[in-house]
Input
Amino acid sequence: MRAVLLIGSPRGERSTSRALGAYMLEGLRSRGWEVGERYACRDVTTSEGLTDLLAEMERSDLSILSFPTYVDSPPAAVMRVMETMHGRIKRGGALLAMANCGFIGSGNNTSSLSICRLFARDIGWEWRGGLSLGGGNVLAGRALQDAGGVARNVRRALDQAVSALAEGKAVPQGAIDLLGRNIVPSLLYNITANRAWDRAARKNNVLDRIRDRPYMEEERR
Ligand SMILES: Cc1cc2nc3c(=O)[nH]c(=O)nc-3n(C[C@H](O)[C@H](O)[C@H](O)COP(=O)(O)O)c2cc1C
Output
């Protein structure tokens, strides 16, 4: 059996998308699967890259799409791959989508994953499920094996997902729910995120303007 991981993040090797996908590939490899890894941002830049990617997906028993949510949607490179696949790819493959987003609530990936699910339906591929992680930047692209306690539930959820996928099944709801839990308490996340914004603003000399709302309509009296 063969699986291909398509990494949808422009951050490439340093992305959380890759860290999550690589962990799953390792699980499948240890169960005797052949695995391959591709980067959407590279493949979409040439027609040879796209053709090659589509061929690899067609010969795989499972395609794993791992990407960050950008404005409630998969990033442009992933959309480009989907548009290309739509007209050209053979029916009968299987797709698993895994989205991670910046906000702490994994619900922020809901519309991205719906796009992938409807896409699988439209091209006649089996939908193996949508996995969703919030607060993806807490992992900051670290390998899950090295990420310690903060990634414990992430590893457990992906282990459960891999066990099902290796047998040709969809990921169980228990794995989806476990990955969907807050990776850190939301209060802690908000404090840390606010500090990071303040630091970035200070570095760019705009700390006194951080609450500006230049596109806000003037209040009518
Ligand atoms: C252009 C852009 C748009 C984004 N839009 C969202 C969004 O709509 N919701 C959200 O929760 N996070 C959003 N994020 C944050 C990323 O999803 C988040 O940082 C993610 O963990 C990055 O994953 P990666 O390391 O795999 O690229 C956005 C980030 C960028 C750069």
